[in-house]
Amino acid sequence: MLIRPLLVIVLLLCGAPARAADAPASPYLFDLLKQKPYLTAWNAMLAGAGVPAWVKNYAKTFDGPSSPSKDVPIQGKVYTLGWVCKAHDCGDNQLHVLFAPGAAQAWGLLTTSGQQKWLGNPDATIQAAINSNLE
Q1: How many distinct structural domains can be found in the chain?
Q2: Report field, pTM of the whole predicted structure over 0.85
Q3: Which residues, including other chains, have CB under 8 Å from residue 24's CB and lie 6 or more apart?
Q4: Per-residue pLDDT reduced to its tens digit, 24-61
Q5: To 10 degrees, the CA torsion angle through 43, 89, 135, 39?
Q6: Is 38:99 a contact under the CB 8 Å cutoff?
Q7: Which residue range forms the structural domain that includes residue 37?
Q8: Which residue of 22, 49, 51, 82 has the fewest C-beta atoms within 10 A of its own C-beta?
Q9: Distance of alpha carbon 80 from alpha carbon 130, whole angstroms
Q10: Contact 94, 65 (CB under 8 A)
Q11: CATH code assigned at 84
């Protein structure tokens, strides 16, 4: 009689990881930039901004470590935050990019050699959202 409840418990426990594995993963920044709206917003964010070559070239080469994007709620809307750093030099070269819903716009915080530079002219709300989600 004890075998049946144990079998049910074992089957439930074995099925849980499979369901978790089916959940879609958050896209990486390079995945987002393969979509035209995100690439357009990225390019607009960088237009006229003096940024290092690794940032300028990232959308072409996808060369740089990144992590899955995060959903960031702002005033009832969901924005998408991506992150990348310079290959082999992450400590001093990081870029956090926040995309508006539908990739209508992008803003970034570039950190190089301890200096921070805002990209895309973010307002105080956008700056606070990026700062509160830094890794």
Answers
A1: 1
A2: no
A3: none
A4: 789 999 999 999 999 999 999 999 899 999 999 999 99
A5: 10
A6: yes
A7: 25-131
A8: 22
A9: 10
A10: no
A11: 3.40.1420.10
